[in-house]
Every structure is written in structure tokens, then in C-alpha cells.
Design a protein that fits this description.
The protein is α+β, with helices and mostly antiparallel strands and 87 residues long. It has two helices and four strands, in the order βαββαβ.
């Protein structure tokens, strides 16, 4: 499934969350990630992120779709982290 993840995490925990999200998804902008995950990878990411977060003050928002073709993406201005294909 295609995932867009956005987080708002306290300053003390933001580095750990960034590192975790980069293990699963492509970083596209400050606190925003996208990419393809299996259902089990998404469950694992949620479980691991819950260990980093303080759920009283932090937030994690996850948008899912069957695949990227169901979304239109428009970037206005400079794309911070252009995705490239490696062969």
C-alpha cells in the first residue's frame, strides 16, 4: 500500500522519529514521508513509533491508499528530496 506519513514530535524525540521513518519511507519534506509499505511493515512502523512518541503531546498522521496511482501529486517550488529510481 502507498503511505504518506506526517508527524509533529517534540524536539527531544524528533531525531529518533526521523531516523525511524527513513528506515521505512522516503523523506520528502520536513516531517513528511511517502512510499510503499506492506501491511506488516506499516504495523511495525506504528509499533516502533509509539515507543518514541509521547502520545499526550506528539502526533503521527498516516494516509494510506492502495497504490500511488490513486493520488495526484503536485509540487510547487523546489522538491526537497527528489525520488530517483535505481536499476
Amino acid at each position: 500500500m502507498y503511505v504518506i506519513l506526517v508527524y509533529d514530535i517534540g524536539e527531544k524525540r524528533v531525531g529518533k522519529m526521523l531516523k525511524l521513518c527513513r528506515q521505512y519511507l522516503n523523506w520528502i519534506q520536513n516531517s513528511v514521508f511517502e512510499g510503499e509499505l506492506t501491511p506488516s511493515q506499516l504495523r511495525e512502523l506504528k509499533m516502533r513509533s509509539n515507543k518514541i512518541m509521547d502520545v499526550e503531546v506528539d502526533s503521527l498522521i498516516i494516509f494510506t491508499s492502495r497504490n500511488q496511482d490513486w493520488l495526484d501529486k503536485e509540487v510547487i517550488g523546489k522538491e526537497k528530496n527528489e525520488l530517483t529510481s535505481f536499476l
